[in-house]
Amino acid sequence: MSKTLFDKVWDSHVVRKIEGGPDVFFIDRHFIHEVTSPVAFLGLKSRGLKVLYPERTFATADHNTPTINQHLPVEDPLSANQLKALEDNSNEYGISHWGLGHQKNGIVHVVGPENGITFPGATIVCGDSHTSTHGAFGAIAFGIGTSEVEMVLSTQCIMQPKPKKMRINVNGQLGKGVTPKDVALYIISQLSTSGATGYFVEYAGDVFENMTMEGRMTVCNLSIEMGARGGMIAPDETTFAYLKDKPLSPKGAEWDKAVAHWKTLKTEAGATFDKELTFKASDIEPMITYGTNPGMGMGISKHIPNAADLDGGVATYKKSLDYMGYNENDAMIGKKIDYVFLGSCTNGRIEDFRAFASIVKGKKKADNVTAWLVPGSHEVEALIKEEGILDILNEAGFVLRQPGCSACLAMNDDKVPAGKYAVSTSNRNFEGRQGPGSRTLLASPLVAAAAAVTGVVTDPRDLL
Amino acid sequence: MAYDKFTILTSTAVPLPLENVDTDQIIPARFLKATKREGFGDNLFRDWRYNNDNSPKENFVLNNPIYSGKILVGGKNFGSGSSREHAAWAVYDYGFRCVVSSFFADIFRNNCLNVGVLPVQVSAEFSEQIFNAIYDDPNTEIEVNLPNQTITIKSTGAQESFEINSYKKENMLNGFDDIDYLQNIKGDIETFANGLLL
């Protein structure tokens, strides 16, 4: 029977099948961070277990690290305690640890690919739902809970039933100002936040084939926001070129052998999916969200839908608009903005800073806007300087912060105050996500830049 | 994690008929800074439950003394968003042993099963019947019978069966977790790992 890309990677990692139960699933690469790992290590200790393959686990601190003055001790004692626990646990069990201040420190889903830890055909997990990012390389990558972190540490396996398969095709030419983030937000707006629950997605079609690795990572990153455990894209020359010579990528003959295998990782003709959806690139415009989940998004030039036009869920919908301080049928263009956040595992890569700079170049930050520009890693930070992007940003009145998850989930001090509006390039607009009472509009780096220089929601196509 | 065995739970239930309840609402990120798993129940639904000055919000269901019990009944797509197992810990720590919904997000469902909270998925119609029964009489009891895989509204006798795979069912009935199983097949795992390219 013809196999999909997903079948090939999944089936080759099943250690054992349990009748009427999950598969025992082997994990090639495991990322850990300070927030979801301490209790897993406590569990190991209380059971007297070792880490089976410490060389397959990689630790980085990102979720609650500060994005200024990283050379100083972390002020918040609870955050400092978690960072210390990650360091101590990594040292005790022989796990590579890129803590705060380490040259390779950054957001786990940015530094993993950057260093060649991620590779095609790999199985990758982390106690973080945006682990789906690594699917961009043709890996099966998804988020797990802390109990499963403990399982991976102690046995390098988790127990998972094989998900159903969905293919999402997007074909055609993307219009001016339409980015990978818009493609993802568009798909989520069509499927809702639960439309792909129970499925693993393969993205196919020329829109994804023509995307850079950064763009593919943005798309796969957001797979979880439509309920999918993860999403993946078949590896190709773009993938191999990105990975070649990365610090931890295979070298020499091993590289050739790996690439020969990676080239076989494609969905075969005739392979079937449980569900298949096809969208047209020309239907997608720059997107923005207006509600309190990532499915509540629309083309930036449109009006907020009326509750009467929805298929149920009216009470939840009205509660959501109420929280946002918006009304049915409002236009989003022209809505006042207080904060702009460029960063996160969704849009904290070099390409995102290039896009942002392309709009703000020669303009000035609006006086009413507080902007937080947070690179995903020190490597991204270095490229921003090297490429002259920092000068453009500084001239426009912006400052660059230091790497971390930052305002995406506001575990550190980067919190949007109650009632304030933020255009954010991150992944979730849930109530209070960016700080208690904060109101989030998810969008691309271009839309964020347009808002940052005008102070209101603005169509970036008018500024390009 | 070791947790209490789950067999038959008969309890009143707490209704939360909102859709898309995400794990940031169940436990906001700023409360994830503990390095132990206990104590999260105090901050369950923190921002819906308390005002900024920590006074309880009267209109939130957990602050309404009429409703109590070990079963939480949520709306469609319960537990979406972040993978934080702290959400399942918070539900457990507060005292719930079962969450009922017409649709669960994947990771949350999985996390619940790993920490001893039984996720029971029912039809949209049955979910509606449960909400109505609770609103008619907050003292109405719901019986969740894991061995038979049934959920029953005691006052009306209405019953529906629910799905759970036989492996996880055995675990819940016995209070086992996956690590117990995985430890026993370590030899197989090591053989498998030795055959890998990378």
UniProtKB/TrEMBL annotation, chain A:
Cofactor descriptive note: Binds 1 [4Fe-4S] cluster per subunit.
- What EC number(s) is this enzyme filed under? 4.2.1.33
The family database entries (Pfam families) matched by this protein are listed as: Aconitase
Question: What Gene Ontology molecular-function terms does this entry list?
Answer: 3-isopropylmalate dehydratase activity; 4 iron, 4 sulfur cluster binding; metal ion binding
Reaction(s) catalysed by this chain's protein: (2R,3S)-3-isopropylmalate = (2S)-2-isopropylmalate
Q: List all membrane-crossing ranges.
A: none
Pathway annotation from the record = Amino-acid biosynthesis; L-leucine biosynthesis; L-leucine from 3-methyl-2-oxobutanoate: step 2/4
Decide whether keyword Transcription regulation is in the record: no
InterPro entries assigned: 3-IsopropMal_deHydase_lsu, Acnase/IPM_dHydase_lsu_aba_1/3, Acoase/IPM_deHydtase_lsu_aba, Aconitase_4Fe-4S_BS, Aconitase_4Fe-4S_dom, IPM_dehydratase_rel_enz, IPMI_cat
Q: Which NCBIfam families match?
A: leuC, PRK05478.1, PRK12466.1
Its assembly, as annotated, is:
Heterodimer of LeuC and LeuD.
Instruction: Specify the protein name.
Output: 3-isopropylmalate dehydratase large subunit
Protein source organism: Mariniflexile fucanivorans
Q: What is the lineage of its organism?
A: Bacteria, Pseudomonadati, Bacteroidota, Flavobacteriia, Flavobacteriales
TrEMBL record, chain B:
**Known pathway:** Amino-acid biosynthesis; L-leucine biosynthesis; L-leucine from 3-methyl-2-oxobutanoate: step 2/4
Source taxon at top rank: Bacteria
Q: Which InterPro entries match?
A: 3-IsopropMal_deHydase_ssu, Aconitase/3IPM_dehydase_swvl, AconitaseA/IPMdHydase_ssu_swvl, IPMI_Swivel, LeuD
Q: What is its EC number?
A: 4.2.1.33
Q: Which GO terms describe its molecular function?
A: 3-isopropylmalate dehydratase activity
Reaction(s) the record says it catalyses = (2R,3S)-3-isopropylmalate = (2S)-2-isopropylmalate
A biological process (GO) of this protein is: L-leucine biosynthetic process
Q: Which keywords label this protein?
A: Amino-acid biosynthesis, Branched-chain amino acid biosynthesis, Leucine biosynthesis, Lyase
Give every Aconitase A/isopropylmalate dehydratase small subunit swivel domain span: 5-124
Q: Does the keyword Zinc-finger apply?
A: no
- Relate the protein's function as given in its record: Catalyzes the isomerization between 2-isopropylmalate and 3-isopropylmalate, via the formation of 2-isopropylmaleate.
Family of the protein in this entry: Belongs to the LeuD family. LeuD type 1 subfamily.
On assembly, the entry states: Heterodimer of LeuC and LeuD.
Which NCBIfam families does the protein's record reference? leuD, PRK01641.1
Q: What is this protein called?
A: 3-isopropylmalate dehydratase small subunit
